[in-house]
Design goal:
Elements: H1 2-33, H2 40-58, H3 60-69, H4 76-108, H5 114-120, H6 122-134
Helix pairs in contact: 1-2, 1-3, 2-4, 2-6, 4-6
Length: about 140
């Protein structure tokens, strides 16, 4: 019975990973393919999609294999690297998920605030993205 539940969870995890690949690749290609989607707000969404895709490529498959096999089949050093990448990409995603509502708030609720001037140019959004990856 436990093996059936484990197989079901593994199948669900594979589906989530595949949907994550598809959704993030769709987001990245649509923003890059259509010029009118290249806005400052969408730059944050693009960066979030890249961070999530990096997580799905570098961390999720290895965690899935370790879940299915019941132990970590790779070298111990790669376990440390994968765990660190997991924390890094999760932190980057959380920083983006914090920056996007702040950007929306200052754009909609407080359009005349001094912070709005900061968000008006592209370099400030690039700075926010860079800070998200560096933190």
């Amino acid at each position: 019975m436990a093996n059936t539940a484990g197989n079901s969870l593994a199948l669900i995890a594979v589906c989530v990973i595949l949907v994550g690949y598809a959704g993030n690749l769709l987001m990245i290609t649509s923003i890059l393919a259509f010029r009118h989607l290249r806005t400052r707000a969408n730059a944050l969404l693009l960066s979030l999609a890249v961070a999530d895709l990096l997580f799905l490529v570098t961390v999720a498959p290895f965690f899935l294999v370790s879940y299915i096999s019941g132990s970590w089949p790779y070298h111990h050093g790669y376990c440390v690297i994968t765990a660190n990448l997991s924390f890094i990409f999760t932190g980057v995603s959380l920083c983006h998920l914090t920056a996007i509502p702040m950007f929306r708030f200052f754009s909609v609720v407080c359009p005349m605030c001094p912070a709005k001037e900061f968000l008006r140019n592209r370099s400030s959004v690039s700075f926010m993205i860079a800070i998200s990856y560096l933190l």
